[in-house]
Amino acid sequence: QVQLVESGGGLVQAGGSLRLSCAASGRTFSTFGMGWFRQAPGKDREFVAAISWNGLATDYVDSVKGRFTVSRDNDKNTVYLQMNSLKADDTAVYYCAATFVESPLTIATTQRGYSHWGRGTQVTVSS
């Protein structure tokens, strides 16, 4: 089992920045592909970013490319989402997710690709 706990959410003005963290415990973190998803009020949960377990492969939804950066520190069992130039449309609950992968470069971009989820952290961007 893997337990995931997100932190770093909050209220920020448009154009500002936040860094989300996701701390993992349980199975060997370095063998998990990690992802970030978000769910805005009244909308479906959507993919935001993903990173392979060796950190060399990443992917992003088009709407955050150039503004968000996903990274990980396997020594600290933590994955990060640096969010810059935030917009009101980025307001959502952000969820961290993990999936066991055999290849160090594998990433998943769909909810079905993940087996473990955190409880989420609220990000609110005021315009």
Question: How would you characterize this protein structure?
Answer:
The model has no long low-confidence stretch (mean pLDDT 95). This protein has 127 residues and is mainly β. The relative contact order is 0.32. The strands form 2 sheets. Strands 2, 4, 5, 6, 9, 10 and 11 form a 7-stranded mixed beta sheet that branches. It has a 4-stranded antiparallel beta sheet with strand order 1-3-8-7, with no helix packed on it. 0% of the residues lie in helices and 51% in strands.
What is the topology?
Blueprint lengths: L1 E6 L2 E4 L4 E9 L5 E8 L6 E6 L6 E3 L7 E6 L4 E6 L8 E9 L15 E2 L3 E6 L1
Parallel strand pairs: 2-11
Antiparallel strand pairs: 1-3, 3-8, 4-5, 4-9, 5-6, 7-8, 9-10, 9-11
Number of helices: 0
Oligomer: single chain
**Secondary-structure content class:** mainly beta
Question: Helix proportion of residues, in percent?
Answer: under 10%
Order of helices and strands: EEEEEEEEEEE
Number of strands: 11
Overview features:
single chain, 127 residues, mainly beta, seven-stranded mixed β-sheet, four-stranded antiparallel β-sheet, 11 strands, 0% helix, 51% strand
Report a brief summary of the structure.
This protein is mainly β. The protein has strands at 2-7, 10-13, 18-26, 32-39, 46-51, 58-60, 68-73, 78-83, 92-100, 116-117, 121-126.
